[in-house]
Amino acid sequence: MPPPIVVQVVVDKPLAQGFDYLWNEELLGGPPELGTIVEVPFGRSLLVGLVIKVSAYSDYEFDKLKHIKRRSPLPPLDPAILRLMNFASQYYIHALGETIIPTIPQMWKKPNDWEKIPKKLATNAEKKKKKSNPILAEGFIEEIHLNEGQKRALEKLRACPLDEFKTILLQGQTGSGKTAVFLNWLSGVLENTNAQVLLLVPEINLTPQLERRVRAYFPDKTMVVLHSGVSEKVRGIAWHDAMTGKAQIILGTRLAALTPLPNLRAIVVDEEHDPSYKQQDGIRYSARDLAIWRAHDLKVPILLASATPSLETWIAAKAGRYEYVRLDQRAQGASLPKVYLVNTRDPQTQFSPGDVDKPKSKSLITKTLANAVGKNLDSKQQSLILINRRGYAPVLSCGACSWLSKCGQCSSYMVLHKAGALGRKSMLSCHHCGLVKSIPSHCPDCGNADLKTLGQGTQKIEDAIEEMWPSARVLRVDTDSSRKSKGAEELFQEIHEGNVDIVVGTQMIAKGHDYQNIGLVAVLDADSRLFSQDFRSAERLFAQLVQVAGRAGRSSKDGETGGAIYIETQFPEAAVFQFLLRHDVDGFLSFTANERKEAGLPPFAYQALVHAESKSLDKAIHYLSGLKGYLKAAGLISKGLRVYDPVPRAMMRVAGSERAQLLIESDDRKNLQEILEVTDRYLRDHSQGRISKEGHIRWLIERDPTSI
Ligand SMILES: [Zn+2]
Ligand SMILES: [Zn+2]
Q: What is the full DSSP assignment across 65-127?
């Protein structure tokens, strides 16, 4: 009898270790391989797991071990993706099984369907052959059509060897044609017919546009698109084509960063500064950072593109750790939009009672802005008006007592949505927990029937615009409108086709879209993000303003202005606005870098949060205090390492849970890793999974948090 084969398997559970199983070659049709997806008995149930080790030994007696039940017909995950997952698991202090199993599409985690898979894949390939897609040549820019600046940038990129690790920052102002440059660069990589390239974008809404462009650019390459918006089945097939090397171009959002790609030769992270690259539940990874690690591991180049690089990336490029390539000219020759700061404290910017054109209802639209929009309408250009609050009004209030429409489950207010947005009736809705309520006819506290709205959201601004310019065609773009009738893509199409004069929307409209006829952009609520406890808020606001400003004046068909952006603010002197006024991205980053350095904040220090969630805030705080006490007593809080007192989260209460956090900060990455590992072990030892045995506190460690 041959010696038994032992395999170690990880499953999707918060368990630090894998489990040993016996592998029966005869039953499973061959020897085990690392990275094989299997079905295993686990407790009283069956789970999908992954083989991470093969050996002839076990710490347990063989007759105590259970047998692997089934193996999936998929080829094993390649060694490189296993290395990436191992790294992610260690760095983000998250169990390996919990890191890796969720990245496998649902479709491949149904063992009862495994037998049918080979047939399914075959019929799918057949179908694909029959359906040949006509290629739209929209947005296709050949190398010969690149301008001088783009050509120079491309030359610099091509000078980087393709078989070496290199991080390249491609910093180019909005409209400078970064996409054309990196697509041309990728065409060089794809001359190797087996090569795979990974192209990451921050937002689902940006994929259709880029997808068309990439398909037109590489008509003879197989491309797959991976994001949470594609159906499970389509995603399953796409993932399969990627992991078997059949697809050469993988376009996707952050989850695509964890796709197995056996022939990966280059990575592009577009809009690398975008906060949506950070995963906010489960393993809280940064897709950009993992992509850099992956490129390093594979010894291939990675290109980070942005008009407003993150401080981390910009500093690395300045210091020469990254290759630094710049594009400082707008592709179609247009100049940058002119920035106007509308000081809302200045009475001259406001309508006065005597004005003939004074609108009946009060809104955030100042007289200065109204005049500019009117002129823009006259010149047959589109206006884009941005307000980052969807709904009609952020809160409903009682004029007689102090009642406000608070959410019963969260520390936030319920937003008033007028009829048509969420349902046929007007509703109150909580944007944090999703609770929806009908609007009370009387104040629940005092019975007063006169309830008033406070503040303004997209719906209310839409109403105001319709009142001020009754003949203008107005379109609202936010997650409500894109969910309702048409998808976001169709709404954007309306704008592209010129069927709209004024667009009002959330930041959804601000990113990446190559609108051709926007003459004016306005930001109504910039101040709301100016003062925030989060030290990154100014950096984010600046990036958003540059992005949205960049939507204006992209075409130079009149050969003249680059359009205009109006920012309504009470604080025009704030640094963010002053740098924007001069389009001085580097000035702003350098100013912010100094501020952070002085304050000892990232990227000059490294941070992690320990989250605790409970029915009661006191219990969550008490739990974290206990952890801090332990770390102190164990002598782990040394010089250069700071453990702060636990505090409630900014959004303290969500869906009935109260949340607290403990901030750990270190001048040194290694020290932080050590203390986090100890923390993890300590919390695990006193928990069942991720719930503490005592007090039932749900906990989680988050490395490199992006909001504090
Ligand atoms: Zn009242
Ligand atoms: Zn709520």
A: PEEP-EE-SSPPPPHHHHHHHHHHHHHTT--HHHHHGGGS-GGGG-GGGGGGHHHHHHHHHHH
Ligand 2 centroid to 700 CA: how many Å? 22
With residue 222 as reference, give the H or E element that holds it.
none
pLDDT reading at 138 higher than 50: no
Residue 440 Cα to ligand 1 middle (Å): 11
Ligand 1 centroid–CA 401 distance in Å is: 4
Q: What is the pLDDT of residue 530?
A: 83
Residue 409 alpha carbon to ligand 2 centre in Å: 5
Which residues are found with C-beta within 5 Å of the ion, ligand 1?
Answer: 398, 400-401, 403, 443, 445-446, 448
- Residue 695 alpha carbon to ligand 2 centre in Å: 24
Q: Tokens 């959330």, residue? A: 506
Phi (first) and psi of residue 10, to 5 degrees: -105, 145
Distance 425 CA to ligand 2 centre (A): 20
Identity at 486, one-letter amino acid code: K
Q: 417 CA distance to ligand 1 centroid (A)?
A: 20
- The pLDDT, as a whole number, for residue 665 is 95
Following CA atoms 473, 479, 482, 483 in sequence, which dihedral angle do they give, to the nearest 10 degrees? -140
Q: Which whole number is the average pLDDT over 165-172?
A: 97
Tens-digit pLDDT profile for residues 299-331: 999 999 999 999 999 999 999 999 999 998 776
Question: With pLDDT > 70 as the criterion, what percentage of the chain qualifies?
Answer: 94
Section 494-508 average pLDDT: 89
Angle, CA 69 vertex, CA 63 and CA 239 arms, to 5°: 140
Alpha carbon distances (Å) from 240 to 32, 212, 457, 702? 20, 22, 43, 30
Q: What letter does residue 409 receive in the DSSP assignment?
A: S
Q: How far is the CA of 413 from the centre of ligand 2 (A)?
A: 8
* pLDDT tens by residue, 62-108: 889 999 999 999 999 999 999 999 999 999 999 999 999 999 999 99
